[in-house]
Design a protein that fits this description.
Shape of chain B: elongated
Number of strands of chain A: 35
Structural class of chain A: alpha/beta
Number of strands of chain B: 11
Radius of gyration of chain B: 24 Å
Radius of gyration of chain A: 27 Å
Helix content of chain B: 25-40%
Helix content of chain A: 10-25%
Largest sheet of chain A: 6 strands, mixed
Order of helices and strands of chain B: EEHEEHEEHEEHHEHEEHH
Number of helices of chain B: 8
Distance between the termini of chain A: 43 Å
CATH class of the domain at 8-27 and 37-175 in chain B: Alpha Beta
Oligomer: heterodimer
Strand content of chain B: 15-25%
């Protein structure tokens, strides 16, 4: 979230799209209700289904799964055409005035630079005119009238998304759509603010990142980014998924979103050249380009990893960091596993032979369950660290319809390590609002179950001892890791948090007055502003710096004083970065540093410094010194950006399994850069055989694939058994009665469940053709407490996904439906 | 449940309660705002756990609703109603439980002395020690709430968490509600809250929003905000009354019975004072 949970109460309009917060985030949903009670906020729910959120929203608009970009670009068009956008904000806080290179084009669904063979883009034409990256004289037109300004190009790009076209693509009736446009754009001014909330309903598409980007662009146009009550707010699906991402939960990032080095960057200097953006400084306000501090974060992280072994002479140990030579995200790993060879290095390397899965259930949550099970069957060994015997741990005895080999023919040796669950260990949860909140252990883990840190430490120390004894390939990378915890086999998590915060390794001087010592050697630092690139500081994760200072463990703070009245609670826990509660908050004020809305102050300039929230700006830099978006080389929010793999503007593409041709460019139906796999188990269905659109989702009564294992409690009884939601009209056509058994099939297989016949899934009129949509929840599987088994929803989903995040397309695929 | 500390205002099959009037207790009430209820069922889980109720086996029957009706071991059920109002689809969720009527039909219908009591704070409760499990209370309830528990042989229903209420705590369901659609306090305060919310809804375009506090049963200690002035959309009776049969029993037959009883005693006493004790028949007579 750019903002936070409590901040939702400050919104005038809440667009809940690509998520069903009442269902999946019922506790945070309190703040939606608070916004309504407190300021009569309007809640707009846009969803294929009439959901629990829609039930209490002020307005509901249906949409066909996977067409969110068309819907959002239509709102952008409406805002520009009617002038209902925040013009003053757009001029100073976005790149709307930048002039774009005349080599950039968009024709018939393809942006310039597309390579038909690799299905990817060369992005050199997605650039500003004059190539500022090479020091060229680029143009900025503050009137926004230049025909090649970002603003005019955007206007031209979205001109096709008229309400009529949106209706033909999305199936949203025009009158409803215009009402949504009117409500949402009512915040395109200084007086009103709106927020957008989303979750996996936006993420899990082959166009997921571009959907989110379209939402962010809309918010920039409306002037809602950086303001209390505004922002682009992702609701995370687990209590600590935000913390996992911050701490390198993904293959392409190191802690704090530093980049994973690649094989083409053998030295730290090469790595910096590829990772630090060039500052653009010819616009009205120079850019701070905060990533110039990259070396401070990187060297401090290397110091925390390798301790004394990390020196200036050895590039701080950079050489020991693993370098990637391709994509190691999880769909690729299972594909390699299944095919027995790696796609990297020309497909000549063998696939993985061993696998540790930690707090993750790939057979349950991965797409195409049959392929998942076949992949695991090729391993020599697998370690499952979990608190229940999940599908992954028992893949070798999956029911026959999953197509696995007989257990006798599966060579995989499976080890199950029982792990403590969330209540059986302490540590922090980082919530969607980026708050690191300490939690205390409530009870001891049962039997031999151990906390995660003990399991990781014991494995690591055993592996390190083996390297010490036997040498082996590249032993330095393991032997030089510093593991200087008081109890190395079971580190105290407070100690780990201290390490992440960072400390001074030598006395740190005040940059303004070198006679003054700010921190003496060994002291915890106050925040990432004190980090150094000369080896005098260590810090495990620069973004979390400030969480454990000399003042103590700030994640444990529980002071609910709120002098802002806006629910910022600066002395409650710690919010990264720098305890800031609203990101980009410089944009909450105008060119002179005066808040757009005096009743909802993000920060304001008092003549000497910025006050209010922790400023997202140099605290004493007067208005006009730097642009508001300090992490971007332009210093302004990007309406046009070359950062993504699939285009500088979002564009409507159908799902990979498309129920209809692309109305705008029939030759390019789906995302041309979408991630696809080509094994014999990766079949893709077509609309002639599978005419029904299907989507998957979660229920408030269940927690992922976990509740079904529950021996005690009442949650399974509150929502018993797998079901398929079917529109009344479709059920009528097929003669399906409510509560009867039905069979749903995709190109990957078939599952059976109880029919839930409902009015809440409308039939959609897509360009004159009626298209039915159905859906089902994900929570069941073959591994469960007695009486609570059911089919895996992902038996039907495909291994296809977004080209930026490699997230699978769980939210839109094609099926058929029949009586079972 | 049977609270030992709360004064009893009314007691089944008894002419009087034990209220001394020394302590004045405000009538308590639960506030339910259906327009902000998301049907998350946190209240259902909280009710089961706080009251130590047995798990009720359920099966998927094509609905989000946990089970069709309340049960002896399930006292709090969100009713999901999918319905079109003026051409617009609605998914109305309403928390079903004992309404704690000011004029409780269950209490009126109960023939077992002290088996159903109404405390001075308005809570209506079943006392299992006195309940004979006859089920008459169910016939007296216009909301179909009390259920017969096959294992204990007693009637069971929501107690409005009387054990929490007597120490000043809110009911478990209110404690668990994440959206704030439930609230708890004095009946006056809850009605005021309801009136405020109804006004907000009217301003937002729900012209016939209403506060459901049916006077046919003397008002209830559960006040419910409805967007639409049609309680039946929420599976609530539009104008609930204690069934006439129970009224006849309570207001006519039983008082008549009591009067008849007294008359019999008076008659017997009169007969005694006039004629004296009945003499045993003489031996002579038998012999003859």
């Amino acid at each position: 979230m750019t903002n936070g949970w409590v901040d939702i109460k400050n919104a005038d309009v809440i667009l809940a799209m690509g998520g069903n917060p009442a269902e999946n985030h019922p506790v945070g949903f309190k703040w939606f209700m608070e916004a309504r009670r407190g300021r009569n906020a309007k809640i707009v729910a846009v969803d294929p289904r009439f959901t629990r959120t829609a039930a209490v929203a002020d307005m509901y608009a249906p949409i066909r799964p996977g067409t969110d970009i068309a819907f959002l670009l239509g709102i952008i068009r409406y805002a520009i055409e009617t002038g209902r956008y925040h013009g003053d904000y757009v001029k100073i806080h976005t790149n709307a005035p930048y002039v774009v290179s005349d080599k950039f084009t968009f024709n018939d669904g393809l942006f310039s630079g597309f390579d038909d063979k690799t299905h990817s883009y060369a992005k050199d034409t997605w650039a500003y005119d004059g190539d500022p990256a090479k020091g060229g004289a680029y143009l900025v037109d503050s009137t926004l009238q230049h025909p090649r300004s970002v603003f005019q190009l955007l206007k031209q790009h979205v001109a096709r998304y008229t309400p009529e076209t949106v209706e033909r693509i999305c199936g949203t009736p025009k009158d409803k759509y215009l009402k949504v446009c009117e409500i949402v754009t009512s915040t395109g001014n200084a007086q009103r603010v709106g927020t957008i909330t989303y979750a996996l309903g936006w993420t899990q598409h082959s166009t997921g990142v571009q959907i989110i980007r379209a939402g962010a662009m809309l918010q920039l146009l409306l002037g809602n980014v950086g303001r209390p009550g505004g922002g682009v707010n992702a609701f995370r699906g687990h209590s600590n998924i935000q913390g996992a991402t911050d701490t390198a939960g993904n293959t392409e990032i190191l802690p704090g979103y530093l980049k994973t080095p690649t094989g083409t960057q053998p030295t730290l200097a090469d790595y910096y050249t590829a990772s630090i953006p060039l500052t653009l400084n010819k616009q009205a306000w120079p850019s701070m380009n905060y990533w110039q501090n990259y070396p401070k974060f990187m060297v401090s992280m290397l110091k925390s990893l390798y301790g004394n072994a990390s020196t200036k002479d050895n590039d701080w140990g950079y050489g020991w960091l693993p370098k990637i030579d391709g994509n190691y995200s999880w769909m690729y790993i299972y594909d390699d596993m299944y095919r027995g060879s790696s796609m990297r290095a020309g497909g000549k390397e063998p696939g993985p032979e061993g696998f540790i899965t930690f707090g993750m259930n790939p057979v349950g949550l991965g797409p195409n369950s049959k392929k998942m099970i076949a992949a695991l069957s090729k391993l020599k060994w697998m370690v499952v660290v979990e608190n229940s015997e999940i599908e992954t741990a028992t893949f070798w005895k999956a029911p026959s319809e999953y197509g696995g080999a007989s257990p006798a023919q599966i060579p995989t040796e499976v080890f199950m390590l029982p792990a403590a669950n969330f209540a059986e260990k302490d540590g922090t949860f980082t919530n969607s609002a980026r708050w690191l909140q300490w939690k205390w252990k409530a009870l001891d883990p049962p039997g031999q179950a151990k906390a995660d840190q003990e399991i990781v430490s014991r494995i690591f120390l055993a592996v390190q001892a083996l390297y010490k004894k036997e040498g082996g390939a590249l032993p330095d990378a393991v032997l030089n890791v510093s593991w200087a915890y008081t109890n190395p086999v079971n580190p105290d998590l407070g100690e780990v948090l201290k390490e992440m915060n960072g400390k001074a390794l030598a006395d740190l001087k005040d940059p303004k007055d070198p006679t003054k010592v700010v921190k003496t050697a060994g002291q915890q630092i106050d925040g990432f502003g004190q980090l150094m690139d000369d080896g005098t500081t260590s810090c495990g994760n620069w973004l979390h710096s400030g969480v454990y200072t000399e003042a103590g463990n700030n994640a444990q703070r529980r002071n609910n004083a709120d002098p802002t009245g806006l629910g910022m609670f600066h002395n409650w826990a710690f919010s990264w970065p720098a305890n800031r509660r609203v990101m980009y908050n410089r944009a909450s004020a105008d060119a002179d540093g005066k808040p757009w809305d005096a009743t909802r102050v993000g920060i304001k300039w008092n003549g000497e410094k910025w006050v209010g929230d922790v400023p997202d700006m140099k605290p004493d830099a007067p208005p006009g010194t730097f642009g508001a978006f300090i992490m971007l080389p332009e210093g302004v929010g990007r309406l046009f950006s070359a950062a993504l793999a699939d285009g500088p503007f979002p564009e409507h593409y159908e799902a990979v399994e498309a129920p209809a041709p692309n109305l705008l460019h029939p030759k390019v139906t789906s995302n041309p850069t979408a991630l696809k796999f080509a094994s014999d188990k990766d079949s893709i269905g077509t609309a002639d055989k599978f005419p029904i659109v299907c989507t998957t989702y979660r229920l408030t009564e269940h927690f992922h694939y976990w509740t079904k294992h529950q021996q005690a409690g009442v949650l399974n009884e509150l929502s018993p058994g797998f079901f398929v939601e079917i529109p009344e009209g479709l059920a009528g056509e097929k003669g399906i009665a409510n509560g009867s058994k039905v069979k749903v099939s995709s190109a990957r297989g078939s599952i059976e469940g109880t029919a839930m016949v409902t009015k809440r899934l409308p039939a959609l009129n897509i360009d004159g053709k009626r298209i039915w949509q159905i859906g089902f929840p994900i929570h069941w599987g073959y591994a469960a407490a007695e009486g609570h088994t059911g089919p895996l929803a992902n038996f039907l989903t495909a291994s296809v996904g977004d080209p930026n995040t490699w997230t699978p397309e769980y939210k839109a695929f094609l099926v058929t439906l029949e009586k079972a | 449940m049977a609270s030992q500390t709360l004064e009893i205002k009314r007691s089944s099959a008894s002419m009087w309660g034990t209220s001394t009037g020394i302590r004045s207790l405000p009538t308590v009430a639960k506030y339910v705002d259906t327009s902000t209820c998301i049907g998350c069922k946190a209240c259902e889980a909280a009710c089961q756990e706080w009251n130590d109720l047995k798990r009720v086996p359920t099966s998927q029957d094509g609905s989000y609703q946990t089970m069709p009706e309340l049960q002896a071991d399930f006292w709090n059920l969100i009713k999901f109603n999918e319905t079109e109002v003026d051409g617009e689809l609605n998914w109305l969720m309403r928390k079903d439980q004992c309404m704690h009527c000011a004029e409780p039909g269950c209490l009126a219908a109960c023939p077992a002395p002290g088996a159903i009591v109404q405390y001075a704070n308005g809570i209506v409760d079943v006392n299992p020690d006195s309940c004979i499990g006859c089920g008459y209370c169910a016939t007296g309830c216009p909301f179909d709430v009390p259920k017969f528990h096959a294992k204990t042989g007693k009637m069971a229903k929501c107690t409005l968490c009387v054990d929490r209420a007597e120490v000043g705590l809110e009911p478990a369901c209110v404690k668990a509600c994440p959206t704030g659609c439930l609230s708890y306090g004095s009946k006056d305060d809850m009605v005021a809250l309801g009136i405020l919310r109804v006004k907000q809804l009217k301003d937002a375009g729900f012209k016939d929003a209403m506060l459901y506090d049916p006077q046919g049963v003397g008002g209830t200690s559960v006040v419910t905000v409805l967007k639409y002035n049609r309680p039946e959309l929420y599976s609530l009776p539009a104008d609930p009354h204690v069934p006439w049969g129970v009224k006849v029993w309570k207001q006519v037959v039983r008082p008549l019975g009591v009067i008849a009883g007294f008359l019999t005693i008076f008659a017997a006493f009169g007969h005694y004072t006039k004629y004296g004790p009945k003499e045993p028949p003489s031996d002579e007579g038998r012999a003859a």
